[in-house]
UniProtKB/TrEMBL annotation:
Nucleotide-binding keyword on record: yes
Gene Ontology CC, one term: cytoplasm
Gene Ontology MF term list: GTP binding; GTPase activity; metal ion binding; ribosome binding
Organism: Natranaeroarchaeum aerophilus
Name of the protein in question: GTPase HflX
SUPFAM superfamilies hit by this protein: P-loop containing nucleoside triphosphate hydrolases
Amino acid sequence: MNAIIAKRVDSGTPDTSEIIDLARAAGYTVVGEVTQTRTEDPALGMGEGKVEELAVLTAETDVEAVIFDNRLDPYQTYNLGQKLPTGVEVIDRFTLILDIFGQRAQTRKAQLQVELAELRYELPRAEAKTSLAKREERPGFMGLGEYDESREQDIKKQISNIRDELERIEKTEEHRRQQRRESGFDLVALAGYTNAGKSTLMRQLAADLDVDENEELHPDLDSTAESEDRLFTTLGTTTRKMEARRRDVLLTDTVGFISDLPHWLVESFKSTLDQVYRADLILLVVDVSDPVEEIREKLVTSHDTLYERNEAPIVTVLNKIDKVDAEELDEKRAALSALAPNPVAVSGQDGENVDALIDRIDADLPDWKHERLVLPMTEETMSVVSWIHDNAQVNDVNYGDDDVLVDFEARPTVVEQSRSKASDLSPAAESA
Ligand SMILES: Nc1nc2c(ncn2[C@@H]2O[C@H](COP(=O)(O)OP(=O)(O)OP(=O)(O)O)[C@@H](O)[C@H]2O)c(=O)[nH]1
Ligand SMILES: [Mg+2]
C-alpha cells in the first residue's frame, strides 16, 4: 500500500520522521511527502494551494492514502476527500495509530480497547453529522445522505457494552495481580516510549521461561517478548519471572507511549497500562541515542503520566549505550540529571551493564518490613500462620498456651494483609 505524508506546522520546519515510522508500522510504503509551515486552514487544514499540489502528486504516484500528521476535524477530512482523487483515503495521525493497534490486537482485551478507541473517535463525528443534518445546513454531509440519529445512539450503546466487558476483564486481572503479590512477588514494570527497547530489555532481565507450578496462576506468562525496529511492536502485556537477587520479581512489558496522543486514545488503553501503574517499581526506559531535547520531553511526559497514578519508585534506564560514545553519554547524563538524577545506562542488545540494573532493581524495591504478630489461638490460626509462611520470610514461631507469636519479614503489603488476617481471628489479636 502506497501513501503520501502530509504535514502542516504553525512555525518552524515540519519533521516527518515519526509519522513515516508510524506509516511503515501500519504497513504503508511512503512514496512522497508534502509539508507546509502556515497557520491552520479551517476548511482544509493546509492551504488550498498545497492541497492542489497534494492532489497532483497523489494522482501521479498512484497511492491508496494520504496520511496527515495533523489532527483533522470531520469537516476537514470531508473537504480533503473531495479535493483528492476518488478512492484515496484521508487518514490522520490518530486513525493511523488506531489502524496499527487494530492490526496488532491479539487478545480479546486489546481488541476491545481498539474497538472502544474507534467508537470514541467516531462519536463526535456522528454527533456533528447529526446536528449538521438537523439544521439542514449541509444535507448529505460526508456523503451519508439521510442523517441517522440512531447511529449516534448505537455508538453510545456499544461503548457502554465494551466498557462493561473491559471492566470484567480488569477485575480478573486485578485478582491475578493480587494473587501474585500474595505469593510474595514484587511487580516491576517496563515503561517508556515505543521503540525505546523495553521488550529487548525484558528478554535480558527475564529468566528463561521456567514452566513451574505457577503456570496456572500466571496464564499470561509468555516465552516471547517480541522486539522489532518499528513503532508499537508490543501492544499487549507480557509478564515473566525475573532473575533477581533476593526478591521474587515478576517483570511486565507492555505498550509504549507515543507523543501527542489524544486523551480518548490514552483512556482506551488505560487498563493495559494498569500493570505499569500498579507496579512496585517502574523501569522508565529511554533511547539514549535520541537527541537530548527529545529525551527530555519524553521523560517529562512520562513522569507526568506515571506520577499521576503511582507512587512507586522510578528507575530511569538509558538504553542503547552501544549507539553513543562515552563522551556523548556523559553529556546527556549531565543534561538530564535534573530529570533522571541517578540513571542506569545499559545496552539491552549487548547485555552491557544489565547486572548493574538488576542490582538497582533490588536496591530500589520498597523495603521489606519486620513484623511480630501475636495471634490468638483459634480454629483459623494455623491457616494464618501457614499463609504467612507462604508469603513472608519467617524468622521465628513461638507457640504459647493460648496464642502464637510469629516473627517475620515481608513486603509492606504482605505485612498489612497479615495484620488484617490476624485481627479477623478475634478482637484480641494484636501487633507485638
Ligand atoms: N543498538 C541497540 N538497539 C537496541 C537496543 N535495545 C533495543 N534495540 C533495538 O531497538 C528496536 C526497538 O526495540 P524494542 O525492544 O522492540 O522496543 P520497545 O520499547 O519494546 O518498543 P514497543 O514495543 O514498540 O513499545 C529494536 O530494533 C531493537 O533491536 C540496544 O541496547 N542497542
Ligand atoms: Mg515492545
